[in-house]
Amino acid sequence: MHKHNKHSKGYNFEVLKANSPELEAFVFKNNFGNETVDFANPKAVKALNTALLKLYYGIDYWEFPDEHLCPPIPGRVEYIHLLNDLLLASGLEKNSTVLDIGTGATCIYPLLGHAEYGWHFIASEIDKPALKNAQRIIDKNKLNNSIALRFQEHKQSILDGVIDTSEKITATLCNPPFYKNEAEATESTQRKLKGLGKKGDKSIRNFSGTAQELWYPGGEKAFLHNFLYQSSQLKTNCFWYTSLVSKKEHIKSMKASLHKLGATKIEVLDLSLGNKISRVVAWTFLSDKEQQAWNL
User: Under CATH, what is the fold of the domain 67-292?
Assistant: First the structure.
């Protein structure tokens, strides 16, 4: 994990329970005598991540319907830290405005990015009920001056209709849907549950998730290439476009497409959490001169 990730040494359940008593019902000691929760239980996962947000990031209200994706905080904040490193290396440490593509009902990246680095956010979403819930979280935590939500009317659009051609943003964050369809998502969930030693209800997803959150026609690769093309239509509107990429085999085709589209620089940043290795791909279309003049 990143050196600034507050969760690199695991969870202090005693402190978490003291700060969030409702978590205690889900905590037990495993065979090694260590406190933990059942990560195959969606309610336990939600209680843990709610407690982490409250203790470490000052988020007192984080409610959302159970069917929505419950994001694991350590992994989400790892992306935030990697992006901050990229911004610092580019001289962009001040007054950053970040676009979160598909913020979901939890609004998780804006909450973490603002808490850790004071970034301002634009957050887009195609699901109106999810957007309404995200707004409630923003309101309850008094973050209206820092996070602005925008509804994306067209499901195949990623940037079109969200970013105005006269607008400038520092970077994008994106956690694209991984799967091509519901069957593929369910199969992946069953493998995950088997890894956790669980069998049974095939409808269970330990982090939950709606259709819009989990799958996209053509899967992750189709989403990413759509994103690459749309970013090339707004070359000077954003310094760093970035996205999580779960499958390493997509990197080669992304690089090839980006070179054809005129990207001037491409970065691949490793994101490691335990045994899971993912990556963030970042690209810019700005010339050296345009990069140097960005903050002037």
Answer: Rossmann fold (3.40.50)
Q: Summarize pLDDT for 144-196 with one digit per residue, the tens.
A: 999 999 999 988 899 999 999 999 999 999 999 865 555 655 555 555 545 54
Report domain extents, the chain: 67-292
The whole-angstrom separation of Cα 125 and Cα 131 is: 6
Q: Measuring CA to CA, which residue among 211, 229, 246, 217 is closest to residue 283?
A: 229
DSSP 8-state assignment for residue 231:
H
Question: pTM of this prediction?
Answer: 0.89
Using the structure block, give the residue that is written with the tokens 């810019």.
284
Amino acid at the residue 72: P
Backbone angles phi, psi at 166, to 5 degrees: -100, 0
238/163 Cα distance (integer angstroms): 10
Measured distance CA(272)–CA(215) in Å, rounded:
23
Q: In the prediction, which pLDDT does 179 show?
A: 58
